[in-house]
Design goal:
Elements lengths: L1 E6 L13 H11 L3 E9 L9 H9 L2 E10 L2 E9 L3 E8 L9 E9 L2 E9 L4 H13 L1 H4 L6 E6 L6 H9 L3 E2 L20 E6 L2 E8 L3 H6 L5 E7 L1
Parallel strand pairs: 1-2, 7-8
Antiparallel strand pairs: 1-12, 2-4, 3-4, 5-6, 6-7, 8-10, 9-10, 11-12
Helix pairs in contact: 3-5
Length: 236
């Protein structure tokens, strides 16, 4: 099974600042993932031609789609999106906003994969280190997250964790192991000259991970300001 996680930056290229959802689609299609976890997905925003990106992506890939709007922009906004080749038996979204900081959120899904139920979490964390610690603690302690404890769990997204402090602190304490390590092999930002390992994956339970990698094609380097992360895995 294959998962792709990517902050698509609303479909706007990091260097040329050109909007093109087609480039995003082409990058995803080239990897042929079963599950796609996206962050910064626009819906009805002027900068992305007022496109309903969740609907367009779901229609193109002919898959199940679950969208979580997090940040309002005029009459639209942007947020997190999960695309799944397989049915989703449970879906929840929780807010990870701390005080007056920028709204953040997490999607909690149980996906009925061919190898069994998978608890999949797609998130985009804040810019401040203390804020991120609070967000992960809130996520792991939330009743909706805990309700899926019997299932193998995979957490992915844009963690904004430059120093990789979450892996050895709150996530390790919650029983999670980092897939995207060592971080020197998983630099994803900025896409054209990546120095930060911001896009991460963590697993708990009987999940066998194979060949995690960063997509470094020329198209991926121009389609967004982040590079996509791909994780091949099996439920043991």
């Amino acid at each position: 099974m294959r998962l792709l996680s990517w902050n698509i930056h609303k479909g706007i290229g990091g260097r040329d600042r050109r909007y093109s959802l087609e480039r995003i689609i082409a990058c995803i299609e080239a990897e042929n993932p079963d599950l796609v976890c996206l962050q910064e997905v626009d819906r009805h925003v002027r900068r992305s031609d007022h496109h309903d990106q969740p609907r367009l992506l779901a229609r193109y890939f002919r898959c199940h789609a679950v969208f979580q709007p997090t940040v309002a922009v005029a009459r639209g906004g942007y947020g997190n999106l999960v695309l799944s080749r397989w049915p989703v038996s449970s879906r929840h979204r929780i807010t990870l906003r701390q005080g007056t900081r920028k709204p953040r959120g997490a999607q909690l899904l149980v996906v009925d994969s061919p190898e069994g139920a998978l608890h999949l979490v797609n998130t985009h964390l804040g810019l401040a280190e203390r804020e991120r610690r609070w967000q992960v603690s809130r996520l792991l302690g939330h009743m909706l997250f805990r309700s899926a404890d019997p299932h193998p769990t995979l957490i992915v997204g844009d963690f904004n964790d430059w120093r990789n402090t979450l892996a050895d602190e709150v996530l390790a304490a919650g029983g999670f192991r980092q897939v995207t390590a060592p971080i020197s092999r998983f630099r994803t930002f900025p896409a054209w000259l990546p120095i930060g390992s911001l896009d991460k994956a963590f697993v708990r339970g009987p999940i066998e991970v194979r060949h995690p990698r960063v997509v470094r094609t020329s198209l991926a380097k121009t389609a967004s300001d982040h590079l996509p992360l791909v994780v091949d895995f099996h439920l043991r």
